[in-house]
Automatic annotation (TrEMBL):
Name of the featured protein: UDP-glucose 6-dehydrogenase
SMART domains: UDPG_MGDP_dh_C
Organism per entry: Peribacillus butanolivorans
Active site per the UniProt annotation: C262 (nucleophile)
EC number: 1.1.1.22
GO process terms (BP): polysaccharide biosynthetic process
Domain UDP-glucose/GDP-mannose dehydrogenase C-terminal: 315-417
Top EC class for this record: oxidoreductase
Key words, A-Z: NAD, Oxidoreductase
Length: 436
């Protein structure tokens, strides 16, 4: 059992803290957001994540988990410190390391134990862990021996707890063998394959993994667009491709492209790193370009169908960047909603969880509905932008009953063509034949 402190208890940090407490460690979670700290102290997660609240409450009650906004209290007894602060894109396109540097400084000023290991969970450009060590060493107020470990995070929002206990691998990178083996011990109870490597390679593994997954998405979306032109069905194609184990079935789902808190910023971040290193990443540049075009593919279909979207009443189903989360960071649905309003459309959106978060970005530009029924009633067309189960389970006859003339632009291929063909619905999806 180790005294562990998490610095930055957002989506990654809180899940890390709660799950490390669950496997028996004593965990202190520290964040600069006092409002969120107050919520977490009361057993409330500031964001939605399945299974998180139960584990949070359970470990708070057991006394394994503690929350504070006081850095001194958080760090005075810490032996192992995980950094999980944000690393957004800066205005100049590079990775904004200001939160990382601030966290490193706070750690340096408050640690007191003789030996401390600082573990970076945040996604950071190659070389950043060395910078973290430098910032800590230059700002130390006590005599502490600090070792650095990179432990990039691979969880997916919406299944973060499941992913933490069932990940494919845990990556531990360090130039200090002893520190790496201590962190390996901490993670061993998860029962997951642990890959130990050097610091720089661990940092690169995270970026290149996300870049590869993004590549799969843009690849399948381009093939989907071609399928539409030549009459093939992307779902048949992806299934047939995926049966080859060298290709695999995962991440071959065509749609409206990738959004969210990681893929867009991490693909940009890797390109920026390559540019600084004097290399171009041409495949990744193309991945991002294809993704930008794919975002508006549904809207282009709607424009082709209607000529012009001015004053058209449009329902958008889904605002979160993916199902089972209320996160709208770089959500494609938000961009679509915004663009539709620029075209003069009258947009009403519904999302099971992310309405409040979306309102903070879109404000009064669109209307918000509290149910699918309310959103689609008397609209000219429906856009499906997030693959929530609630949309997949929605009875199709209701589109017939509630819309003027049922027209769906489905960016998530939510319904099977066989199902749709039983109804009087004009149906446009991605990479599959159009149904009328
Ligand atoms: P987040 O915005 O949800 O959380 C970051 C937290 O850090 C916030 O609560 C913020 O208040 C806090 N913070 C900022 N500066 C601080 C400081 N100096 N001291 C203490 N707390 C501070 O971000 P996130 O989604 O959890 O992402 C964190 C990192 O993990 C990023 O680098 C991200 O790329 C990476 N990551 C995220 C995911 C994901 O699905 N969200 C998955 C894998 C990796």
């Amino acid at each position: 059992m180790k005294n562990i402190t998490i610095v930055g208890t957002g989506h990654v940090g809180l899940v890390t803290g709660v799950t490390l407490a669950e496997i028996g460690h004593q965990v202190v979670c520290y964040d600069i957001n006092e409002n969120d700290i107050a919520l977490m102290k009361a057993g409330i997660s500031p964001f939605y994540e399945p299974e998180l609240t139960d584990l949070l409450k359970k470990n708070l009650n057991k006394g394994q988990l503690f929350f504070t906004g006081d850095p001194k209290l958080a760090l005075v007894d810490a032996e192992i410190i995980y950094i999980a602060v944000g690393t957004p894109t800066a205005e100049n396109g590079s990775v904004d390391l200001s939160y990382i540097k601030e966290a490193a400084k706070t750690i340096a000023e408050n640690i007191t134990k003789q030996e401390v290991i600082v573990v970076t969970k945040s996604t950071v450009p190659v070389g950043t862990n060395k910078l973290i060590q430098q910032v800590i060493v230059t700002n130390l107020t006590n005599e502490v021996n600090v070792n650095i470990v990179s432990n990039p995070e691979f969880l997916r929002e919406g299944s973060a707890i499941y992913d933490t206990f069932s990940a494919d691998r845990i990556v531990i990178g360090s130039d200090c063998e002893k520190a790496a083996s201590i962190i390996e011990e901490i993670h061993r109870p998860f029962g997951i394959t642990i890959f130990i490597t050097d610091l720089l390679s661990a940092e690169m593994i995270k970026y290149s993994s996300n870049a590869f997954l993004a590549t799969k998405i843009s690849f399948i979306n381009e093939i989907a667009n071609l399928c539409e032109k030549v009459g093939a069905n992307i779902e048949e194609v992806a299934h047939g491709m995926g049966l080859d184990f060298r290709i695999g079935t995962q991440f071959l789902k065509a749609g409206i492209g990738f959004g969210g808190s990681c893929f867009p910023k991490d693909t940009r971040g890797l390109i920026q790193q390559a540019t600084e290193a004097g290399q171009s990443l041409e495949i990744l540049e193309a991945v991002i370009k294809v993704n930008k075009q794919q975002k508006y593919s549904l809207m282009n279909k709607a424009k082709q169908r209607f000529g012009n979207l001015k004053d058209k009443k449009i329902a958008i189903l889904g605002l979160a960047f993916k199902p089972n989360t209320n996160d709208v960071r770089e959500s494609i649905a938000i961009d679509i909603a915004s663009e539709l309003t620029m075209q003069g459309a009258l947009v009403t959106a519904y999302d099971p969880l992310a309405l409040e978060e979306a309102k903070q970005i879109l404000g009064e530009k669109i209307q918000y509905a509290l149910s699918i029924e309310e959103a689609i009633t008397n609209t000219d067309m429906v856009f499906i932008a997030t693959d929530w189960d609630e949309f997949k389970d929605f009875p199709l006859e209701k589109y017939e009953m509630l819309m003027k003339h049922p027209i769906i632009f489905d960016g998530k291929n939510s319904y099977s063509l066989d199902e749709i063909s039983e109804y009087n619905i004009e149906y446009y999806s991605v990479g599959r034949p159009f149904l009328n």
